[in-house]
């Protein structure tokens, strides 16, 4: 087991306000993330709108489609962590980008051939989900190697800034592309972005050593070790419970918001893109402000406060009517975006600091198995509730669930904790 006592090994020096961006390898990862996130914003809006507008499918079918990209975390999430811990993570990232780009290109090709069906969209979403599992598990496991553990908060904050900025500008671009070119054709832009992301990852110079695998070790045993590591730690378990609950109801919410906005609010694709962009305003603020809030509240408190104070603003969306009220709801969703980024930077950085290198893949896979599996199940439930109760009522139920998601971390040691436990003095898997 690799010691946690040498956090600065392999870390680039922090020279000025640019910090890690002065480092060639982190800069390429940063740029790769930038283009990939913009492309992701296009597909995350274009794929369901292709089903709603181009194919005119039912609410339940939209819910199933929303779940397909996340259901892969349930199907292969746990073994993926063990497999990633046996492979060089940079190589996994590159292959995942290339395969996802190729699969996405089939959507505009089928559209041009007048052969696009909901079943193809299901298949595309599922394959994208499978390789997203490998990409995400490798990505969070790769960052500690690339920047060193002492720079994880800075690295995660900069990458969250990219994601939040993409949430700001990406939906606007996506909405206009969908309006001008149709949703299926807009997806081709994400394929190009993923190809560019793979090329940038190829430029990274720092190479990982080949992981050492114990002779005779079994994937099933390694999966159990990952589960035990996460759920035997009270803080990790509470974070997983909070994130899983929030994602479950977010899955239901997002499945119906893409039905609610065009059908109930009468919004065009361009307006829908602007609606989601307003959510991204808060994310950008949260990425820049996470350090300030951490210093003011403490590392432990900021985890639950960031969700408890911001999530209730989501209730304004199902309360809205066409006109200015839906735009007020969209603007105030910026608080939700800010809280989500602050929460993510804090809890992800702690998880990476706590976990030894040879356990990172399994820890990240275990967490994602729960939290993204919850999203997939929530999306299916959202589609089923939308079919019976309608999109607006489903949004009310989902928004209420998101508002209460902070309770697991509130009723944990994090409630009054200003500084998170020092992993150097806490045995792996020990109860916090």
Structural overview:
α2 runs antiparallel to α13 and α8 packs antiparallel against α14. This protein has 15 helices and no strands. It is 74% helix and 0% strand. By secondary structure, it is mainly alpha-helical. The chain crosses the membrane at residues 38-55, 62-80, 92-112, 119-139, 177-202, 235-260, 272-293, 302-320, 326-346, 367-389, 395-414.
Brief descriptors of the model:
MFS_trans_sf; disordered C terminus; transmembrane helix; globular; cell membrane; TM_effector; disordered N terminus; 0% strand; 432 residues; single chain; 15 helices; mainly alpha; MFS transporter
Write the layout of secondary structure elements.
Layout: H1 24-54, H2 59-84, H3 89-112, H4 118-147, H5 152-181, H6 183-202, H7 219-231, H8 234-264, H9 269-297, H10 299-308, H11 324-332, H12 334-354, H13 360-389, H14 391-403, H15 407-410
């Amino acid at each position: 087991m690799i010691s946690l006592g040498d956090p600065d090994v392999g870390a680039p020096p922090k020279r000025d306000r640019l910090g890690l961006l002065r480092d060639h390898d982190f800069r390429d990862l940063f740029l790769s993330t930038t283009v990939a996130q913009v492309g992701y914003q296009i597909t995350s809006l274009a794929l369901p709108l292709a089903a709603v507008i181009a194919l005119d499918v039912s609410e339940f079918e939209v819910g199933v489609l929303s779940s397909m990209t996340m259901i892969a975390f349930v199907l292969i999430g746990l073994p993926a962590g063990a497999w990633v811990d046996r492979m060089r993570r940079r190589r996994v990232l590159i292959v995942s980008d290339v395969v996802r780009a190729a699969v996405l290109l089939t959507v505009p090709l089928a559209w041009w051939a007048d052969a696009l069906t909901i079943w193809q969209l299901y298949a595309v979403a599922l394959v994208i989900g499978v390789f997203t599992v490998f990409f995400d598990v490798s990505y969070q496991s790769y960052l500690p190697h690339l920047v060193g553990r002492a720079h994880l908060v800075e690295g995660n904050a900069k990458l969250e800034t990219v994601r939040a900025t993409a949430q700001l500008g990406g939906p606007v671009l996506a909405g206009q592309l969908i309006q001008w070119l149709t949703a299926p054709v807009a997806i081709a832009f994400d394929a190009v972005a993923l190809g560019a992301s793979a090329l940038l990852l190829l430029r990274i110079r720092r190479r990982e050593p080949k992981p050492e695998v114990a002779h005779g070790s079994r994937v099933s045993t390694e999966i159990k070790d990952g589960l035990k590591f996460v759920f035997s730690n009270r803080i990790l378990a509470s974070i997983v419970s909070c994130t899983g609950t929030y994602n479950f109801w977010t899955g239901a919410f997002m499945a119906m918001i893409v039905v609610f906005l065009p059908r109930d609010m009468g919004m065009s694709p361009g307006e829908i893109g602007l609606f989601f962009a307003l959510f991204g305003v808060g994310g950008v603020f949260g990425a820049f402000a996470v350090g300030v809030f951490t210093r003011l509240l403490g590392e432990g408190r900021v985890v639950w406060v960031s969700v408890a104070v911001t999530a209730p603003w989501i209730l304004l969306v199902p309360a809205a009517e066409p006109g200015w009220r839906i735009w007020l709801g969209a603007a105030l969703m910026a608080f939700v975006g800010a809280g989500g980024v602050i929460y993510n930077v804090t809890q992800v950085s702690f998880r990476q600091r706590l976990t030894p290198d040879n356990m990172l893949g399994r820890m990240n896979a275990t967490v994602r198995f729960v939290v993204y599996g919850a999203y997939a199940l929530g999306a299916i439930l959202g589609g089923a509730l939308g079919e019976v109760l309608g999109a607006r009522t489903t949004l009310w139920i989902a928004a209420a669930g998101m508002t209460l998601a902070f309770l697991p971390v509130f009723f944990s040691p994090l409630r009054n904790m200003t500084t998170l436990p020092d992993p150097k003095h806490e045995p792996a898997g020990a109860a916090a």
